[in-house]
Design a protein that fits this description.
The protein has about 160 residues and is mostly helical. It has five helices and no strands.
């Protein structure tokens, strides 16, 4: 019975599988294009929380790997191979999920930066348009006098 995993192994495996499944489900939800900064910030917080949640399980994942290594030294080849295969699948899903989370966070941060830049540029453009509007309504352009007209336009 040295080749059987301890009870903690099964509990840890179940916990990690549930966490991976929940995370995969959250990441597989369709990404909606959002143009509201606050919603993007909320989504980024959710993704970062998901990353933290996964990191909290790292110790358990290390325990599973070590336990499988220990068991494979003591267990018959077929038993140890079964557990090795199981842990390899888990580690593969874990790595894929971690990489997807990093990628999603980076893309979202890039989009947030672009949106912020766009909003700032739009604000600047609107301000300039308002100034030009005031200029056009208040003063008659120096018609016929191109030099005076240029100076008036430069004031905008």
């Amino acid at each position: 019975f040295d080749s059987l995993p301890p009870a903690r192994y099964k509990e840890t495996m179940d916990t990690i599988l549930v966490r991976i499944q929940q995370s995969e489900t959250k990441l597989s939800m369709p990404q909606v294009v959002v143009a509201e900064y606050e919603i993007m910030e909320q989504r980024l917080r959710e993704l970062k929380a998901l990353q933290s949640s996964l990191q909290e399980q790292q110790k358990g994942l290390n325990y599973l790997s070590t336990t499988v290594e220990d068991m494979s030294r003591k267990a018959p080849a077929e038993v140890s191979q079964r557990y090795r295969s199981e842990i390899e699948v888990i580690l593969g899903r874990w790595k894929k999920l971690s990489a997807q989370l990093v990628e999603h966070c980076q893309k979202l941060e890039e989009r947030m930066t672009k949106l912020q830049r766009f909003q700032n540029d739009t604000k600047t453009l609107k301000k300039w348009m308002a100034e030009v509007d005031v200029f056009l309504k208040e003063e008659w352009p120096a018609l016929g006098d191109s030099e005076a007209l240029e100076k008036q336009l430069e004031q905008c």
